[in-house]
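Please decode residue identities from the backbone states below.
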């Protein structure tokens, strides 16, 4: 039996936590309206002249760029894209091509930086130093913040969706990481830190998937990094997906509940702890030397001994 949309057309998705059944056009309107509401609630575009999008070439960051390209034009905001090419063969050759295509189609200025040029190593090289481990997130965050700042961006938009946010909430809670719980929005009070924009933070991953397929049907978003080894995060993802199937809307409940906990904690904490500047590269860190420089020192010892 065919599902019918509220408008009478054939539905392509049933959103269980709302009971809505939506056709293609109604789903696109539903998705974009929620993203615009998030942007307005967070005042992401207020007094901003230049935004950088962290564009990996995956579905999430592609959708962020697509939506912001429309809003930036209306609000007279300069929009640029920053891609970090780790140099993973048979993976980032595909994702970087996606990034180039979408930037060309949207007429967005595109900047690509490579691990090889910035750190002297590609991710394939790093895998030789740390077999079975992947610390690429440390290096990517380091470069994205640095390059966004150097390019004059006032905000850095990332592709974190609701599933990503809820997984991080549970991981930080399990580890008792109070600072990360409070800094859930990526808030750091330092001029070297480019404030983050997470416009998809209230969009479930399966809805982002569908939106991406509808708007970019010819792009391959199926590739995953072969070095991704976040066993705990993947286990939490599976658990959350099972809970969502049984209790539709549970991911939203965790997300909103964490906001209340963070607000209550902040009332009793005047100072979260200002970041330090790395004694080697000058970028922000919690200790004397940042994780990027520490990792590079270790890799140098292993690969150059």
């Amino acid at each position: 039996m065919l599902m019918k949309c509220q408008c009478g057309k054939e539905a392509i998705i049933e959103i269980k936590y709302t009971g809505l059944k939506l056709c293609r056009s109604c789903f696109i309107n539903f998705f974009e309206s929620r993203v615009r509401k998030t942007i307005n609630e967070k005042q992401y575009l207020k007094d901003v002249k230049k935004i950088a999008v962290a564009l990996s070439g995956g579905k999430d960051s592609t959708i962020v760029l697509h939506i912001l390209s429309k809003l930036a034009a209306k609000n007279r905001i300069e929009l640029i894209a920053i891609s970090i090419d780790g140099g993973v063969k048979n993976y980032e050759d595909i994702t970087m091509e996606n990034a180039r295509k979408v930037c060309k189609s949207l007429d967005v200025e595109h900047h690509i930086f490579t691990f090889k040029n910035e750190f002297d190593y590609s991710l394939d090289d790093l895998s030789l130093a740390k077999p079975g481990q992947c610390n690429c997130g440390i290096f990517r965050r380091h470069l994205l913040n640095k390059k966004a700042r150097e390019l004059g961006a006032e905000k850095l938009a990332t592709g974190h969706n609701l599933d990503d946010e809820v997984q991080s909430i549970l991981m930080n809670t399990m580890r008792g990481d109070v600072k990360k719980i409070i800094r859930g929005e990526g808030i750091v009070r330092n001029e070297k830190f480019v404030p983050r924009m997470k416009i998809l933070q209230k969009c479930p991953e399966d809805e982002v998937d569908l939106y991406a397929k509808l708007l970019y049907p010819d792009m391959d978003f199926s590739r995953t990094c072969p070095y991704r080894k976040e066993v705990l995060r993947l286990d939490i993802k599976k658990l959350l997906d099972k809970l969502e199937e049984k209790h539709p809307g549970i991911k939203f409940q965790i997300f909103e509940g964490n906001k209340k906990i963070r607000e209550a904690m902040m009332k009793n904490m005047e100072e979260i702890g200002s970041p330090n500047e790395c004694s080697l590269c000058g970028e922000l860190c919690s200790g004397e030397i940042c994780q990027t420089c520490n990792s590079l020192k270790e890799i140098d010892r292993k690969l150059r001994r």
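Observation: The mean pLDDT is 88.
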